[in-house]
Amino acid sequence: MEEQLNILIERYPKLAVCKEDIKKAYGLLEAAYSNGRKLLVCGNGGSASDSEHIVGELMKEFKLKRKVYSDHAAVLKEIDPELGQTLAEHLQGALPAISLTGHSSLQTAYMNDAVPELVFAQQVNGYGKPGDIFLGISTSGNSKNVLYAAVNAKAKGLKVIGLTGAKDNKLMKYADVCIRVPETETYKIQELHLPVYHCLCLMLEEHFFGNK
Fold first, then answer.
1. Most buried one in 34, 87, 144, 157, CB count within 10 A?
2. For the segment 94-115, what is each residue's pLDDT rounded down to a tens digit?
3. Rounded Cα distance, 52 and 81, in Å
4. pLDDT tens-digit series, residues 7-65
5. Residues 132, 198: one domain?
6. How far apart are CA 127 and CA 110, in angstroms?
7. How far apart, in Å, are the Cα atoms of 186 and each of 17, 130, 140, 162, 200?
8. How far apart are CA 161 and CA 12, in angstroms?
9. CB–CB of 42/146 below 8 Å?
């Protein structure tokens, strides 16, 4: 973990102020995944793209190879020798993560029928279980739909991580940890969000798949 954090700070020195919060966020994520939980993540605009990006890094190989466990491979081949062999050779280990930004039919139905700003909160209502993690990405930290989702996540027993800009914000109130990158303009904040979540994903992959 420390190696990846040191590399991050070496490449982006201004993120040194976020180091302890990144470590705390990593600790929450590691604990959740160690206990069979999952990550729910959302944001708007560029942060919606970041949400999908994070899921892509967690749900398949990022930097390391992630072969399925040998006992799972054996069961696959027992069920069907031909199909199971292909599955065993090509499936990759995954850390379960769901982007709440990608379900267009659900989102449009809910926004049309109910209160649009509660769309992420509704998804947390359906997916969230105690011990899961909710990651809200908001450059301002004040996006209403992210705040509603964070409140519902807390109510359902999820841990909440915020990823925002430098200014004090409302998401901090609900977050167990809020990583506030040291920028105030939207595009500059987004430019620092990416290396932060890449670092988190690298640390998680290293922990769960580094010795497999």
1. 87
2. 999 999 999 999 999 999 999 9
3. 34
4. 999 999 999 999 999 999 999 999 999 999 999 999 999 999 999 999 999 999 999 99
5. yes
6. 15
7. 19, 32, 8, 15, 21
8. 21
9. yes
Residue with token string 């990823």:
163
The type of residue at 189 is I
Distance CA(37)–CA(160), nearest Å, equals 13
CA distance 25 to 30: 9
| Pair 77, 13 in one domain | no
Residue 135 has phi, psi (to 5 degrees) of -110, 115
For residue 71, give the amino acid letter: D
**Tokens standing for 46?**
């560029």
What is the number of other CB atoms lying within 10 angstroms of the CB of residue 103? 14
The CATH number linked to 179 is 3.40.50.10490
In the DSSP assignment, the letter for residue 68 is P
Q: How many CB atoms lie within 10 A of CB 119?
A: 22
Q: Shortest CA distance to 40 belongs to which of 95, 115, 113, 91? A: 95
CA-closest candidate to residue 153, choices 189, 120, 180: 120
Determine the structural domain holding residue 132 and report its residue range: 2-59+94-209
Rounded Cα distance, 183 and 202, in Å: 23
What is the domain count for the chain? 2
Structure tokens at 172: 């901090």
